[in-house]
TrEMBL record:
This is DEAD-box ATP-dependent RNA helicase CshA. DEAD-box RNA helicase possibly involved in RNA degradation. Unwinds dsRNA in both 5'- and 3'-directions, has RNA-dependent ATPase activity. Pfam families: DEAD, Helicase_C. The lineage of its organism: Bacteria, Bacillati, Bacillota, Bacilli, Bacillales. SUPFAM superfamilies: P-loop containing nucleoside triphosphate hydrolases. HAMAP family: DEAD_helicase_CshA. GO terms for molecular function: helicase activity. Keywords: ATP-binding, Cytoplasm, Helicase, Hydrolase, Nucleotide-binding, RNA-binding, Stress response. The gene is cshA. PANTHER family: DEAD-BOX ATP-DEPENDENT RNA HELICASE 47, MITOCHONDRIAL, DEAD-BOX ATP-DEPENDENT RNA HELICASE CSHA.
Length: 506
């Protein structure tokens, strides 16, 4: 590990980093910061949660000319939430140098952004659509930009943002520096990227596996119609502090969030069709621990850094190994540990193997817990909560009542009754989730090459319709609900762009 002082970073920035709790540079920071400060083009690839944001944020701050009122760095990110998060991190890095950082993204009132842009930000972080919008309105001038960053570059190119990005590139001086970062960088995407870079330095942090070691990875083989009950039981057994459940489509996310709420979990969904205000409030509540389970699509969660996510559940196995890497990377960040569980239907086992081939990591099979096991866990929880109250030593108010009970009943009998009343029943309320068709069958083979990047046929005729059925007990009705069906408009970026690809959240 290298100290930031050894990287020739000025003291003001070093102080800011200490304030952020950063003691030493992570490997990707160590490998790229110097090139970044020298003005070199860099392609940086390192595992999820290993500090890529500061790897480009630090050079941006270091190179900033505080006397200039022009925009000197432009960072492009695929989603609004990521744009906000990245701008906050850069702001913190530039705390001492008083760098003005502004985020611009779709879904936020443009007038407000225009006024903020007049206030001479030094660094702008935004989503492609909204950046283009400001370029066209001439409210964002980029002729003094020295550094251009594409965060989650592969995702943006993959999402069909290439045209938008090319247009933005044309508005930025040719002699700029370009930095490109992601945990995954499939070769074809890297080739495209290299076309707009100058002799880039490729920094790939070598590791045996593509995913971080501190995430325990499991898979559960389960039939489509049983998945939801298995998920409910796993949540009971594993007791995650904060969990993210990934669903394949927006409808899936809506249905899962609703179904989890019916079963008594505090769950909310996020995906690109929700209003910006709703997405922000859901994320805020999740970060504040007011929501236990966040249900999300891949795109909605790319790059998000939410500390304390202990478990990731892939309710649907992702089609691309890259998506898998990013999804499970929402846990096990900055050296913390995490658990990832991937559901796989028998027909999708081929995908599981493809994921494993790519990540170079085997997932451990996990037997779906039975409802008895889930109940046993609930009983243990009842014991834990009783002990917690005893430890708090503040139940004297009940001492009199306890004495009265003890006169009439045996102590063991009383404790057993208390535990019984504390044990939450296993909630198997029927819920309605539209069945997804399994992914088209694929076998792991030498044709892997990063999952579905080849040929652009990523959805492979995936189901949009499907049948609706009730889970648990086979009962009908009982709180079941159909959600409003798939909504496929691509609006992750304020709706201003074409949608040229057809992946999950489209
Ligand atoms: N040198 C450091 N020391 C301690 N913590 C750090 C350091 N650098 C970054 N972090 C923290 O680690 C967390 C993950 O960082 P970041 O979001 O930049 O990861 P990433 O590599 O971009 O991940 P992803 O691939 O998911 O986008 C953040 O909370 C960040 O503040
Ligand atoms: Mg990142």
């Amino acid at each position: 590990m290298t100290k930031f002082s050894e990287l020739n970073i000025n003291e003001t920035t070093q102080k800011a980093l200490i304030r952020m709790g950063f003691e030493e540079a992570t490997p990707i920071q160590e490998g790229t910061i110097t090139f970044g400060m020298e003005g070199r083009d860099v392609i940086g690839q390192a595992q999820t949660g290993t500090g890529k944001t500061a790897a480009f944020g630090i050079p941006i701050i270091e190179k900033l000319d505080p006397k200039s009122t022009a925009v000197q760095a432009l960072v492009i990110a695929p989603t609004r939430e990521l744009a906000i998060q990245v701008s906050e991190e850069i702001y913190k890095v530039g705390y001492g140098s008083r760098a003005k950082v502004l985020s611009v993204y779709g879904g936020q009132e443009i007038g407000r952004q225009i006024r903020a842009l007049r206030n001479n930000p030094n660094i702008v972080v935004g989503t492609p659509g909204r950046i283009l919008d400001h370029i066209n309105r001439k409210t964002l001038k980029l002729d003094h930009v020295q550094t251009l960053v594409l965060d989650e570059a592969d995702e943006m190119l993959n999402m069909g943002f290439i045209e938008d990005i090319n247009t933005i590139l044309a508005s930025v001086p040719a002699e700029r520096q370009t930095l490109l970062f992601s945990a995954t960088m499939p070769a074809p995407i890297r080739k495209i990227a290299e076309t707009f870079m100058k002799n880039p330095e490729i920094v790939k942090i070598k590791s045996k596996e593509m995913t971080v070691e501190n995430i325990e990875q499991f898979f559960v083989k389960s039939h489509e119609r049983e998945k939801f009950d298995v998920l409910s039981r796993l949540l009971n057994v594993q007791q995650p502090e904060l969990a993210i459940v990934f669903g394949r489509t927006k409808r899936r996310v809506d249905e899962l969030a609703h179904a989890l709420s019916i079963r008594g979990y505090i769950a909310e969904g996020i995906h690109g069709d929700l209003t910006q205000a709703k997405r922000m409030s859901v994320l805020r509540q999740f970060k504040d621990n007011k929501i236990d389970v966040l249900v999300a699509t891949d795109v909605a969660a790319r790059g998000l850094d939410i500390s304390g996510v202990t478990h990731v559940y892939n309710f649907d196995i992702p089609q691309d190994p890259e998506s898998y890497v990013h999804r499970i990377g929402r846990t096990g960040r900055a050296g913390k540990s995490g658990v990832a569980v991937t559901f796989v239907t028998p027909r999708e086992m081929g995908y599981l193997r493809i994921v494993e081939e790519t990540t170079k990591k085997r997932m451990t099979p996990l037997r779906p817990p039975t409802s008895d096991e889930a109940l046993l866990e609930q009983k243990k929880n009842a014991v834990d909560s009783l002990i917690e109250v005893i430890d708090q030593q503040n139940s004297e108010d009940y001492a009199g009542l306890a004495a009265q009970l003890l006169e009439k009943h045996d102590a063991k009998e009383i404790v057993a009754a208390a535990l019984k009343s504390l044990t939450k029943n296993i909630d198997e309320t029927p819920v309605s989730i539209t069945e997804e068709r399994p992914l088209p069958s694929r076998r792991p083979s030498s044709s892997r090459s990063g999952g579905g990047y080849k040929g652009g046929n990523r959805s492979g005729g995936r189901s949009q319709g499907g049948r609706s059925r009730n889970f648990s007990g086979g009962g009908s009705g009982g709180g079941s609900r159909r959600s409003s069906g798939p909504r496929d408009s691509a609006r992750r970026d304020g709706g201003s762009r074409r949608n040229s690809s057809n992946r999950s959240e489209r």
